[in-house]
Amino acid sequence: MKGSLPDDVVEVFERSVTTEFVTVDGRGQPIAWPVTPYCHTDEGCIDVTTGLGDPKKADDAARNPNVALLFSDPTGSGIQAPPIVLVQGTARIDDGDLEANRERYERESAIKLPGTQKGQPPTSLRRFFAWYYTPIYIHVRPERVYVWRDRNLEAEPELYDAHLDEVRAAHNQEPESGHAPPEGGPPDWDPRLDELGTHYATAALGFVGPEGFPFAVRVPVRADRAAGVVRIEADPEGAPIEPGLACLCAHDHAPDFSWRRNFQVGGDLEEDHGGWLLRPHKLVGGVEPSPTSTVQRYRHNARKALRFRRIAKGELAKRGR
Q1: Is residue 52 part of a domain?
Q2: Closest listed residue to residue 250, CA positions, set 289, 296, 206
Q3: Which regions of the chain does DSSP assign to beta strands (E)?
Q4: Residue 54 contacts residue 132 (beta carbons within 8 Å)
Q5: Per-residue pLDDT tens for 26-82?
Q6: Which positions ≥6 away from 100 have C-beta within 8 Å?
Q7: Is residue 1 part of a domain?
Q8: What is the pTM of this model?
Q9: Smaller CB count within 10 Å for the chain: N or C?
Q10: Residue 314 to residue 321: CA distance in whole angstroms
Q11: Contact (CB, 8 A) for 60 and 314
């Protein structure tokens, strides 16, 4: 991977604190979440994780290994004006040795995210938080890489592909597999959507491209509560946007990742007078160590933690542990 991609692109993989990871579920709904990438150029892959208590990312990737990683938020990377990079790749799930995964995660996250170590429970108590500290690793092998230089989405992206002839032709020749059509139905408005266009000027838009791989790009957004839609205020060059199921992921975090906030909303992507809009159907919030005290963080996430703990116990039972 390092020999086939420009150094500044590999640097984005290695130094980014977050990437938007996009999977496609069983009904064709793309789902995007911010995760931390761990680049392994010697192995030719980029790894991400999901907790044992929240295995859906891994389950979806196991069912459909076509995934995407969008590197669009440089906060905390220390890179000045890096390019926006989209990786389309194939996923492999690594959950055969959960104890080794836990040890690896504690080691790698301490190196990459030292700011997160403050306020964490001591090692002796982390068994009570196995839903979080016992991760499932997802190895992503890049197949196709899009690069928007100068973060300019109005310019045609550079394309780097595993199929060299297709790179030279600046297109791919894989058969089109289609994507799920719009679901229809009335919008479901969640109050957090009002943050789009105010607190969050942009969000990561995920959808399924014509060849069956998810595609994602960061776009300016604006909530229109009166109309019950989120307006997409850009049409990025090189993004094969079509009507269908889509997802918007909004998130922010401290440069040292000591706090973070995030949510994603799925719905119907529709054309609108030459532009695009998302008609929201379901908003999901993630675990959010927000910029408050440790006690307040635990209170804010207590109900989610209990649910994730129940799921983790079920996952361990399935594995006979």
Answers
A1: yes
A2: 206
A3: 19-24, 30-35, 38-40, 45-51, 66-71, 84-94, 135-148, 158-161, 202-208, 214-224, 229-232, 244-253, 260-272, 275-285
A4: no
A5: 999 999 999 999 999 889 999 999 988 889 999 999 999 999 999 999 999 999 999
A6: none
A7: no
A8: 0.87
A9: C
A10: 10
A11: no
